[in-house]
Design a protein that fits this description.
The protein has 545 residues and is an all-alpha fold. The chain is 62% helix and 2% strand. The protein is built from 23 helices and four strands. Strands 1-4 form a two-stranded antiparallel sheet. A two-stranded antiparallel sheet has the order 2-3. Helix 15 packs across helix 16 and helix 17 runs antiparallel to helix 20. The chain is globular, with a radius of gyration of 27 Å. The relative contact order is 0.12.
Amino acid sequence: MRFEELLDQVGGFGPFQLRNVALLALPRMLLPMNFLLPIFLAAVPAHRCALPGIPANFSHQDTWLEAYLPREPDGTLSSCRRFTSPQALPNTTVVGEGHSPRELQGEQSTEPCPQGWEYDHSEFSSTIATEWDLVCEQKGLNKAVSTFFFVGVLVGAVAFGYLSDRFGRRRLLLVAYVSTLVMGSASAASVNYSMFVITRTLTGTALAGFTIIVMPLELEWLDVRHRIVAGVLSSSFWTGGVMLLALVGYLIRDWRWLLLAVTLPCIPGILSLWWVPESARWLLTQGRVEEAHRYLLCCARLNGRPVGADGLSLEALSKVAAAERVVRRPSYLDLFRTPRLRHISLCCMVMWFGVNFSYYGLSLDMSGLGLNLYQLQLLFGAAEIPSKLLVYLSVRHAGRRLTEAGTLLGSALCFGLRLLVSTKMSWSTALAVMGKVFSEAAFTTAYLFTSELYPTVLRQTGMGLTALVGRMGGSLAPVAALLNGVWLPLPKLTYGGTALLAACTALLLPETRRAQLPETIEDVERKSAPSSLQEEQMPMKQVHD
């Protein structure tokens, strides 16, 4: 007897599984709220050098600012430099003879802001940029916050992946919740930039537990036929989190309270673990038959399935446990031992890097789009809804490979076309939204495509490797935005070029539509003949033919 037969007896999809999906919806929503939090947390409002107070008898503030601040090539007053000594001011409140103060005294040398900066607090009461002056020469430190955070996610993915296999999903989910709560609260209480970066990196490490644990904990209780429904349903919680972040950011304008607002929901999450079941499949692989028996009986009772004593006897479960334990634990090296599997792994790594790099490059950079951050975040979240419909229709008719390549190509074209239109035009915003649709569709398709390329014996290992490389792309995306200091269009060229490279690489992968899912490495190497596609487990943010 296999575990799937046990699920047929106790119910592979019913109230028990729906309750499980509902209980695990919270961590899915917390992920985008934390991953995209720098949009508001690290926002840089309008700023200029701090200047001496304007005289009481001087009524023209613009003239006063021109006396201290040089102009940039585009005609705007500088945000990062001031004159070493002020320009001569006329005695009257109006500059006479059509001359500016600079023309009266001539050009002067400039210097960085010696007394700090003054910020426009009309949109944000405070951000980390205003808290620690992460602007001008220090703007790289502002972008580095996201990079360190995603490095923490990368490390956490490796750690939680190993520990959850050893100590169980439910126990490590508790560790992830508690660690996120503690580190998130510590981040909100940070007294300096160094403390904030360290605690934020550790928060990313803790949040990685959600990405690694929640998906298997849901899917391991579902039968094969209903994993598609649960996968699509669960992916909607990510979109809900993206849109909810816009509302929370609009209501809370102080970065410390905003950080607490996306951290404190971990408390009800910890309490909800009382009702979250451990994976019975994992318990059987560990030989913990009695615990698995208890959870299976609970599943049967909630699903209204009468189960006889013989069907779920400890002896029967012991046989299932023995069958589960004979499977050899896969290794990452197995992904590169054979030629075809090595080809698939290398192409998937490039593809996943490009998907993450372009997705977060677009999602974390909302400057120059004509709308405020709250409207853009809500719009970007709403754009993810049609992207799922796009994927659902495309993978059924065009196939996985062309859908992945096409959506990445669409994302690259949107980056490129934005270089040709003015940032003040509505076309720039429309192209950004279209780019969001394509990048989200590429993200969704990547999960489906990758899971069908790898054999069953290496599927989770392959998904883990590609997700690891993808998070490297996510960690580098904020840093690439700093390339605008070298050449203004360079960040968009980098994001678009990487997406284009990933699109070309996706075309090198074999098509999996209507192809039998490979079970062993030998199946991959001999290129199994096409047949009706078997449904297999689906990661988050995924649809299926």
